[in-house]
C-alpha cells in the first residue's frame, strides 16, 4: 500500500505539484500499527488530478476530494484547502484551495494526524506531532475552544483515538470536551454510531466507555445505560445492553443479532436448545456478558449432535416412504419433535433409531 501511494505522489510531483501521504497512515507507521487506508494531500486541484490519472472518481467536488484506484487499492486525494466558516457545528460553509501544506495541516483535528510523508518516504513533522506521539497525548490543532465548536464530531474522534491508541487526552482539550459535549445532540445518528462502533469494537473499549462517562457524553448520545454495561470484546455485545434499537440506525443483521442476544440474556442459563436455536455467535456474546467462559460454550456447541435441521439423519423422501404420502403439516411436527429429542439426548441422531422412533410414535 505504501509503495503504491509513493508511486502516486511521485507521479503528481512529476507534473509540477506538491503531494504527500498525510494523516493516519504516517502516524500508524511510526506506532508500528497496521493501517487500512492512505490519504494523500496535494496542491493539485481535482481537475488537475483527473488529467494525471486515468481511473479517477470525484468523491466530493465541494471539498476537493477525488479517489484514485491503483492495483485495486483505493486512495483518497484531497487538494490543500482552507475551511471558511462552519455550518451546524459540523461542515465547512465553503472552502478555498491553497498551495501551502502547513496551512492545510492547521485545519486538521489533532496534531498526531498531521504527519506527512514525501515522495522519498521522508516523514515531515511541521506541528510537532512526533512529540505528542511520544508523550501519548491527543492534542488539538489550534484552540479546542473554537475547533470543537467548528466540528462537534471532533469530540467523539478525540475519545476514539484515545481509546484505540491508548493515549491520554490533553487537559485543555478535556476541558472543552466537557463544556461542549451538548453539541453532540446536533450530530447525525449515523456519524455518532460510526465513531461509537470504533470505540466499542476496540480491544481497549473499557477505556473508551470510561472516557464517555467521565466527560458526561453518555447523556448527549442517548446512552443512558452505559454505566451498567458489562464490557465485552464485541461491539454488538455493548450495543445489546444499551436499549437503543429505537434510536440508532442499525443494519438488518445488527438488529436481528441484538434482538436474539436480548432474548437469550433473559434466560437464566443457556440450554442445549438455546445453543441450537441462537447459534454459536449469539451464544458466545451472551456467555461473555454473563461471565461464562467462551471455551465452555464452544465445547458444548461442538458436542451437539445437530447444529441445524439439515443435520437430522432422515430425509423428506424417507418420511414420504414411511407414511406413503406427502403430509407437510405432519412432517413439520415430526421434525420439531425429533429435533428436540436429539438435543435433549432422548434420541440418537441415527437413521434407524429415528425411523423406529417415528413409527412407534406416529404410525
What does this structure look like?
- There is one protein chain.
- The protein is an alpha+beta fold.
- Among the domains are: 1-135, 2-Layer Sandwich (Beta Polymerase, domain 2), CATH 3.30.460.10; 254-302, no CATH class; 309-362, Serum Albumin, Chain A, Domain 1.
- Helix content is 49%, strand content 13%.
- The protein has 18 helices and 11 strands.
- The chain has a 7-stranded mixed beta sheet with strand order 3-4-5-2-1-8-9.
- Helix 7 packs parallel to helix 9 and helix 7 packs antiparallel against helix 10 (205-214).
- It is elongated, with a radius of gyration of 28 Å.
- The chain starts with a helix and ends with a helix.
Descriptive keywords:
alpha+beta, Beta Polymerase, domain 2, two-stranded antiparallel ribbon, 363 residues, seven-stranded mixed beta sheet, 49% helix, Serum Albumin, Chain A, Domain 1
Which class of secondary structure composition applies to the elements? alpha+beta
Runs in which pLDDT lies below 50 for 5 or more consecutive residues are: none
- Spell out the helices and strands N to C: HEHEHEEEEEHEEHEHHEHHHHHHHHHHH
Number of helices: 18
User: What share of the residues lie within helices?
Assistant: 40-55%
Coarse shape: elongated
Task: Please tally the β strands and state the result.
Answer: 11
